[in-house]
Amino acid sequence: MKTLWHGLAAAALALVAGAALAQDTCPHRGELDTAYCDANRDLVADPPTDPKRFRNPSVLVFTYTPVEDPAVYERVFKPFTDHLAQCTSKRVVFFQVQSNAAQVEAMRSGRLHVGGFSTGPTAFAVNLAGAVPFAVKGDAKGFQSYHLALVVRADSPIKTLADLKDRKVAHTSPSSNSGNLAPRALFPPLGITPDKDYKVLYSGGHDRSVLGVRTGDYDAAPVASDVFERMIDRGTVKESEFRVIWKSQPFPTSSFAYAHDLEPKLRDTLLKCFHDYRFPAEMQKAFDGADRFVPVTYQKEWEVVRRVAQSSGESFGAKAFEALTQREEAARKKAAEAKAAEKK
Prior knowledge:
Blueprint: H1 2-14, H2 16-25, E1 59-63, H3 70-76, H4 78-88, E2 91-94, H5 100-108, E3 114-117, H6 121-129, E4 131-139, E5 142-143, E6 145-146, E7 148-153, E8 168-171, H7 177-186, E9 199-202, H8 206-215, E10 221-224, H9 225-233, E11 242-247, E12 251-252, E13 255-259, H10 264-276, H11 281-286, E14 292-295, H12 298-301, H13 303-311, H14 318-343
Parallel strand pairs: 1-2, 1-3, 8-9
Antiparallel strand pairs: 3-13, 4-5, 4-13, 4-14, 6-12, 7-10, 7-11
Helix pairs in contact: 1-5, 4-10, 5-6, 7-13
């Protein structure tokens, strides 16, 4: 727990000189950390003004959001990472991350160059790690979206939101949009307030929430509908085992973002490699029919996510990130203990 946050703190100290310079010359920063500047006010970090600060690594490190088993997605993305290596003429390595906090810290420290971030943690990556979102999976009609889906067991007596009162409800992690921020923003106007009307238990992931509902560890769980549907498609759970008693408005799925300080030619090549690529059949199956990376911007497509966070009283700064780190570590520890208990 402390190690991960200390890693972020160390990365921040390593950037003190650059941050001090940015403070002296940056005309606008908005919600970005002091290591970054947003002079053009598009809400993401500008490229460095000093060419010496551009990075052109010999090995590109790519990762995908840890909403489910990272090893599964390393295999799913293999056709694309092979394409990316050929397209950029660089070696590409898939970096398996176990938490949203670890993923954000990896980009901030310079160990991660491009990757997919969950909807909610995208804002932490933008503000604290200099991530620049540029795409979402989709098709010719546009980018994919998902809903907050409130799931219960098929035999549960819970029929409506009001029935959640005094129940055990699994939220995924503090930074998750559909798994935590959205229910905290959307449920109270409908008469049910998390942590007040029901007990919030952090599961550590959407898949863990779903499995916990099935086993009876939780009475209900708000999860990302696309993750839930993929679990059904893969046979991890059966649709008949659950009921969805409420759905939200749509949100964009995971963003793909690059580090703001990539060398411009490399950055432009990277973007072209993403946008020109068409998913093979196995990737389309894994991603609900998506066949391409659709261009997006953080300023426009993430507006609804920022609004949900604001209305729920959440922020995407360093203090909130430290809390995220601690809670995710606690959730992982609890999950590991539960898994160990199952083997006994």
